Amino acid sequence: MSSLKDTLRSDLTYAIRGRDQVRAGTLRMVLTSVTNEEVAGTEARELSDDEVLKVITKEAKKRREASAAYTGAGRAELAAKEDAELAIVEAYLPAQLGDDELEKLVAEAVAETGATGMPQMGLVMKAVQPRVAGRADGGRVAAVVKRVLAGS
Predict the structure, then answer these.
(1) CA atoms of 34 and 46, how far apart (whole Å)
(2) Which helix or strand (DSSP H or E) is residue 78 part of?
């Protein structure tokens, strides 16, 4: 069993005991998503820490998007709820890369792949994604890749 999943389960237990309803509810949803991912496909399997991290990243993205949608619709109280859940979910993600670090990783990937322009963006994305893994949003990575390729 993955240690990240164990951590989520033990934190859920502490949240329930501490009567922290927001944390408990959020961790339940994350664990449900992990379980759904485990039973998806042809046979049930145990997720590795990297796979659990991908599920947590998806959960964070869902909350970010929901918060933006609620804010745009003028529903500040629902946006605040999503933001609170996002803060809890983000605690389980690795530290996010800064702009300089991300740009450096993209530049290295461009040099390795020999990409010269936008037609090779997919090649660069494929090379940089494993290095970034959960430490930067895909849209942010794509924007940096576009900027670097446009400048090269």
Answers:
(1) 9
(2) helix 76-90
Decide: 1 and 46 in contact? Cβ < 8 Å.
Answer: yes
- Please give the DSSP secondary-structure letter assigned to residue 120: G
The more confidently predicted of residues 69 and 119 is 69
The token duo for 116 is 């010269």
Whole-angstrom CA distances from 100 to 13, 74, 121, 128, 144 are: 38, 34, 19, 14, 10
Distance in angstroms (rounded) separating the CA atoms of residues 140 and 124? 14
List domains and CATH numbers for the chain: 3-90 (1.10.1510.10), 99-151 (1.10.10.410)
Closest by alpha carbon to 62, among 48, 47, 83? Answer: 83
What is the reported pTM? 0.76
Condensed to tens digits (0 to 9), the pLDDT of residues 15-26 reads: 999 999 999 999
pLDDT in tens, 64-74: 999 999 999 99
Average pLDDT over residues 107-119: 83
